Each structure stands twice: as structure tokens, then as C-alpha cells.
């Protein structure tokens, strides 16, 4: 009797498994037809739109960052060059302080007798200072102004002795007692570039030059002269261009890396969500066949237990 129950249970379990296998094959063969043409095209269309919009936003933010960094880089390089030029000129002027206070004799209208300085000594000191200015690197023109606007010396001898109207840069230096510089490469100074190039440089004028106004003080801190230097720093311009190139290449690489990294993360997330969705939709459909198999297994176990109990009672009774 026990053997009969086992055979019947095995046969019913096998039938349940066969019914579950046939149902699963039907569901798997029907799944691509029902899911693929309806959900995927709409999802891909939305994802393409969001990916494009994300790429545009990242490019705009990166371009703004690169422009800001490029502008800051140019400001710092030009400012550092102007500070070095100012230190150089100031050190030259202060180097003559042991013999005579240079700034007091730059103006030829100064009374040398009251200072106790001979004319030849004063001229020698002036010429030595002017020679240093004349051989500054990348210098195209240099002028030495008095506070009233008179040019006491210029690399262009035709301008020596002229009195010009005090421009805003010279006036700012006299009022603030600080060195200022102006670079003529930005869009706001384009018209002024053309005017200054026509006035200052006779040949081979470059579109970029720097103008430094350097005040010279006496021992009491009064401004007695202002050195105006126009330079075309080609090496400085090359450095700025190399800095621009490095900034924009780094920005482009960063944008590409960020975009593809986010794209890869997004695709992996989509794949994980799709797999989870597939599992969630497949599990409820599998429950009825699994319930049938479980019921048959439970029924088989119950019959075996009843048969064993009956046999046990028969042994005890016999």
C-alpha cells in the first residue's frame, strides 16, 4: 500500500511539473511580442532627449568656467609682469641714491645749485637711468612724465620737452600713488588700441601690448616723476595662449569624461531597473503552477504520513 501511494504521488508531481513547463514555454514565447514594440521605443526617445539636454547644460557650464578661468589667468600673468617691471624700474632709480636722489633731478627745471649737484653729474646720472629704460625687454616706447604732464625724456626724441594733457591713467597714478597697468587685448579697449598704435609704433605693430605707469617717489613719499612704458611682450602673449589652450583642452576632456561616465551609470541603472521589472512581472504569473506543484507535493506527503500511521497501528495490533 505504501508503494502504491508513492507511485501515485510521483505521477501527479510529474504531471504538475509538465504543466508548469509547458506554461512557461508559452509565456516566454509570447513575451517579446507583447513587450518590445510598446515600451522600448518610447523609453529610448525620452532618454535621448534627456541625454541631449544634459549634454548641452554640461557644455554651457564648462564653457562659462573655462572663460572665467582664462580671464583670471590672463589678469594674473599681466599683473605679475607689470609688478616685475615696476620693481625693476624702482630698483634702478633707488640704485643712484648713494650719489644723488635721482627723482629730484629728472626734471631739467630743477635748481641743481640748491641741491648741491653739478650739471655734469646730474646729466650722467640721468643718462644712465634712461639707458636702462631704453633697453628694457619687449619695450617699444618709454616716457618719463613730471606731475604737470611734461615729458622730460622719451625713447622718441621728438617728444622730449612737450607738455601733453594728463590722461586718466597718469591722473590716477598721481592721485592714488600706486602703479597701474592696462593691457590692450580686450574688446572694450579695441578702439583705443588702434589710436595708440597709430601714435606710438611706426612699424610692425602688434595687436597686443601692455602699458605700465610706474610712479617714482622722493624720500618724503612725494611723486616727482612717472615712468610710462609701452611693451609688446610676445613671450608673455605666447604664455597666455598656451594657458588658454591648456584650460580649454582640460575643460573638453572633463566634459567628455563626465558625460560618458554619467551615460554609463544611467545605462547600468536602466538595465538593473528593467531586470527588476521583468522579475516582478514574471513572479505573479508563476505562482499558480508553483501552487499546483506545492499542493501535489503536500498531498503526497500527507498520504505517506497516513499510510505509515496505518501500518504502524497494524503492527501494534498484530
**Mean pLDDT, nearest integer?**
74
Query: What is the end-to-end distance?
Result: 17 Å
- CATH level-four homologous superfamily name of the largest domain: PAS domain
CATH architecture classification of the largest domain: 2-Layer Sandwich
The largest pleated sheet is described as: 5 strands, antiparallel
Helical percent range? 55-70%
Q: Rg to the nearest angstrom?
A: 46 Å
Helix-strand pattern: HHHHEEHEHEEH
Low-confidence stretches: 1-9, 31-42
From the 3D structure, determine the CATH topology of the largest domain. Beta-Lactamase
CATH level 1 name of the largest domain = Alpha Beta
Shape estimate: rod-shaped
Structural notes for this entry:
With 318 residues, the protein is α+β, with helices and mostly antiparallel strands. It has two domains: 2-28 and 44-58 and 252-311, no CATH class; 64-248, PAS domain (Beta-Lactamase, 2-Layer Sandwich). The protein has seven helices and five strands; from the N terminus they run ααααββαβαββα. A five-stranded antiparallel β-sheet has the order 2-1-5-4-3, with helices on both faces. A hairpin with a 5-residue loop joins β4 and β5. α1 (2-94) packs antiparallel against α7. The chain starts with a helix and ends with a helix.
Quick overview of this protein structure:
The chain is of the alpha+beta class and 318 residues long. Helices cover 69% and strands 10% of the residues. It is rod-shaped, with a radius of gyration of 46 Å.
Amino acid at each position: 500500500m505504501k508503494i502504491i501511494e508513492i507511485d501515485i504521488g510521483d505521477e501527479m508531481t510529474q504531471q504538475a511539473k509538465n504543466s508548469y513547463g509547458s506554461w512557461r514555454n508559452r509565456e516566454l514565447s509570447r513575451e517579446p511580442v507583447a513587450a518590445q514594440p510598446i515600451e522600448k521605443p518610447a523609453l529610448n526617445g525620452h532618454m535621448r532627449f534627456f541625454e541631449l539636454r544634459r549634454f548641452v547644460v554640461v557644455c554651457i557650464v564648462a564653457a562659462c568656467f573655462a572663460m572665467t578661468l582664462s580671464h583670471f589667468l590672463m589678469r594674473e600673468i599681466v599683473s605679475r609682469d607689470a609688478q616685475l617691471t615696476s620693481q625693476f624700474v624702482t630698483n634702478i632709480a633707488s640704485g643712484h641714491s648713494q650719489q644723488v636722489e635721482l627723482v629730484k633731478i629728472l626734471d631739467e627745471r630743477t635748481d641743481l645749485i640748491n641741491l648741491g649737484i653739478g650739471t655734469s653729474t646730474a646729466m650722467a646720472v640721468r643718462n644712465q637711468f634712461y639707458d636702462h629704460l631704453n633697453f628694457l625687454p619687449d619695450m617699444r616706447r618709454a616716457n618719463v612724465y613730471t606731475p604737470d604732464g611734461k615729458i622730460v625724456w622719451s625713447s622718441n626724441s621728438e617728444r622730449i620737452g612737450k607738455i601733453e594733457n594728463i590722461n586718466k591713467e597718469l591722473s590716477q597714478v598721481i592721485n592714488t600713488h600706486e602703479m597701474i597697468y592696462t593691457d590692450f587685448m580686450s574688446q572694450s579697449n579695441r578702439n583705443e588700441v588702434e589710436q595708440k598704435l597709430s601714435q606710438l609704433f611706426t612699424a610692425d605693430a602688434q595687436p597686443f601690448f601692455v602699458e605700465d605707469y610706474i610712479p617714482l617717489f622722493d624720500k618724503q613719499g612725494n611723486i616727482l616723476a612717472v615712468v610710462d612704458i609701452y611693451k609688446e611682450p610676445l613671450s608673455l602673449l605666447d604664455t597666455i595662449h598656451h594657458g588658454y589652450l591648456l584650460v580649454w583642452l582640460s575643460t573638453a576632456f572633463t566634459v567628455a569624461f563626465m558625460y560618458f561616465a554619467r551615460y554609463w551609470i544611467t545605462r547600468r541603472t536602466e538595465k538593473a531597473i528593467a531586470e527588476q521589472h521583468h522579475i516582478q512581472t514574471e513572479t505573479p504569473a508563476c505562482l499558480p503552477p508553483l501552487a499546483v506543484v506545492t499542493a501535489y507535493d503536500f498531498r503526497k506527503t500527507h498520504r505517506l504520513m497516513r499510510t505509515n500511521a496505518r501500518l504502524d497501528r497494524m503492527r501494534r495490533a498484530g
